[in-house]
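explain this chain.
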Amino acid sequence: MNLRQTNKANRQKLIVATAARLFSSIGYEKTAIELVAERANVSPATIYNNFDNKTGLLLAVLIDEGEDAQQIGERIIAQRQPNDPSIIYRLIDMYVTHPMEFMNKTCWRQALAASTASSNEKFTQEYQNVDHQLGNLLIDLMHSLYREKAFTAKVDPQALGEIIWNNVNQMFTDFISSDDMSLAALKNTLNRQTKALILLAAKKD
């Protein structure tokens, strides 16, 4: 990457970080492109050229969050002890905690709606790819634990990972859709549900 490309990438990261703070603090509706440009010290044209519109910018925030979560998840897994299913809970905890450091519930509602309804194919596809990679990280972990004999031989690690990942996604959607559900309540529910699955799959001594 040459200097020009590096400067462009850094500028895009600054714009996305600025937008994330504004989305979370004053809301999606009140966050104008012009305000993001002013806070990031760039022109509105720069934002439009890079993200097309505010929906593209919102999706870029989701992509940035997902890529950060991917890197954190990889570090968590790299430091794990073999044959220890407790790593699953740590990974799930990160999956639901990290997004809330980027945006609040209201913005996440807008973001998830935008990810399915946006005409911005580039950012929609990128977001879906990041989400897919996060799921694969959990599924690959299940395969590793299976090879380490943490589960019974009858367990399908692919299916187990897919079920847990789908449940995390659904529960996170329920969480951001509810004004009453707290993050602590979400974590407790996910831990309880995941534990039930892991106990069924775990190798008996």
User: Anything to note?
Assistant: The radius of gyration is 19 Å. Residues 121-147 form the longest helix (27 residues). Residues 58-201 form a domain with the Tetracycline Repressor; domain 2 fold (CATH 1.10.357). The chain has a mean pLDDT of 89.
